[in-house]
């Protein structure tokens, strides 16, 4: 190989290397195109090198021509590979830049929960349903007859007083207990009766830590042949066991217009006797008022205040907390 040939071959080799490095360093298609023109264009270095072929021996000329083609092809294939890579990168970048987030941020809907009054009313009602009682409901607006008269309240009974009962302009009243529902039920149903009445009641009370003008009751009524005070005690014992567990209970004599005899029921809870409900045998006058023969049928009844039960079992210190809709309070249940 002649010195001239070696020189031209070395020049071609360094063009190839330089082009290779330049291509590897490009990061845009525009730059790549500039490099194509620079290294493979008509005014590029290879035609220049080939211009020096005149100095070569005729026998060396085809060799340098072949070498020049090899270098051109090598540069071309580097260029193609780089173009493919840059195009792929460009598409990828475009895809990432144009990503459309089609998700929508959700609408926050706070989860509600059962109010402690309703929770307690459900618990009590469910226990009696478990004992075979049926739920009965009635209107909150009542007549004097269903709320007092049929329940054996004397005409001058203090509960009938304007100071104790909410009277409506039309002469009706807001029911002061759910007992009116039992009267309505017995008027349209024959014994045997086993009913449980959960419901809202109203009294013209001055609101304080233990009184609310709106409150809730659950009452029960059983009427059948041969029911005795023992049946009443057994029913209440089973009920209180399910609500409080095995706690001592006691019955104290009391008075209600609609029951005779009547009793208050206390449970021993956290070391103290608490008055929790009232009960008694249905007064014969009440049975007569709905057309039941008191010589054939006897009945027992009991009633309790739902707020009071909730306050005892949840250790709530003021009845008003149950009515002020303070979420810090309500979220505890
Ligand atoms: C009929 C006959 C008898 C329901 C009864 C009680 C005793 C009682 C109070 C508890 C606290 C009301 O919420 S409170 O203030 N109730 O002590 N209730 S016997 O007796 C009836 C009901 C209906 C036809």
TrEMBL record:
Entry keyword Magnesium: yes
Residue stretches making up the Aminoacyl-transfer RNA synthetases class-II family profile domain: 124-324
UniProt keyword annotations, A-Z: Aminoacyl-tRNA synthetase, ATP-binding, Coiled coil, Cytoplasm, Ligase, Magnesium, Metal-binding, Nucleotide-binding, Protein biosynthesis
Pfam families: Phe_tRNA-synt_N, tRNA-synt_2d
GO cellular component, one term: cytoplasm
Subcellular location: Cytoplasm
Residues the entry annotates as binding Mg(2+): 260
GO molecular-function terms, A-Z: ATP binding; magnesium ion binding; phenylalanine-tRNA ligase activity; tRNA binding
Cofactor(s), by name: Mg(2+)
Database matches in SUPFAM superfamilies: Class II aaRS and biotin synthetases, tRNA-binding arm
Source species, domain of life: Bacteria
Record text on cofactor binding: Binds 2 magnesium ions per tetramer.
Enzyme class: ligase
Subunit details: Tetramer of two alpha and two beta subunits.
NCBIfam families in the record: pheS
PANTHER family: PHENYLALANINE--TRNA LIGASE, MITOCHONDRIAL, PHENYLALANYL-TRNA SYNTHETASE
Name of the protein: Phenylalanine--tRNA ligase alpha subunit
């Amino acid at each position: 190989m002649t010195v001239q040939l070696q020189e031209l071959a070395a020049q071609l080799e360094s063009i190839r290397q330089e082009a290779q490095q330049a291509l590897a360093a490009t990061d845009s298609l525009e730059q790549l195109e500039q490099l194509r023109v620079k290294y493979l264009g008509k005014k590029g270095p290879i035609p220049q090198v080939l211009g020096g072929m005149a100095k070569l021996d005729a026998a060396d000329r085809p060799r340098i021509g072949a070498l020049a083609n090899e270098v051109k092809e090598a540069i071309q294939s580097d260029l193609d590979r780089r173009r493919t890579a840059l195009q792929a990168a460009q598409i990828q970048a475009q895809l990432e830049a144009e990503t459309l987030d089609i998700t929508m941020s959700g609408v926050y809907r706070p989860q509600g929960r059962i109010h402690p009054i309703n929770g307690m009313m459900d618990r009590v009602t469910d226990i009696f349903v478990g004992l075979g009682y049926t739920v009965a409901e009635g209107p909150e607006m009542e007549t004097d007859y269903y709320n007092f008269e049929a329940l054996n309240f004397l005409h001058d009974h203090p509960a009938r007083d304007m100071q104790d009962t909410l009277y409506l302009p039309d002469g009706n009243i807001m029911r002061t207990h759910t007992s009116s529902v039992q009267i309505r039920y017995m008027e349209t149903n024959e014994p045997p009766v086993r009913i449980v009445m959960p419901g809202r009641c109203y009294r013209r009370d001055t609101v304080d830590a233990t009184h609310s003008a709106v409150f809730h009751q659950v009452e029960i009524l059983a009427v059948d042949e041969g029911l005795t005070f023992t049946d009443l005690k057994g029913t209440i014992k089973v009920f209180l066991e399910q609500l409080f567990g095995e706690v001592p209970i006691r019955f104290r004599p009391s008075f209600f217009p609609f029951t005779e005899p009547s009793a208050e029921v206390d449970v021993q809870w956290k070391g103290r006797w608490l008055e929790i409900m009232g009960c008694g045998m249905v007064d014969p006058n009440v049975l007569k008022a709905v057309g039941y023969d008191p010589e054939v049928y006897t009945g027992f009844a009991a009633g309790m205040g739902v707020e009071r039960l909730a306050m005892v079992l949840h250790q709530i210190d003021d009845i008003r907390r149950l009515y002020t809709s303070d979420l810090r309070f309500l979220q505890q249940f």
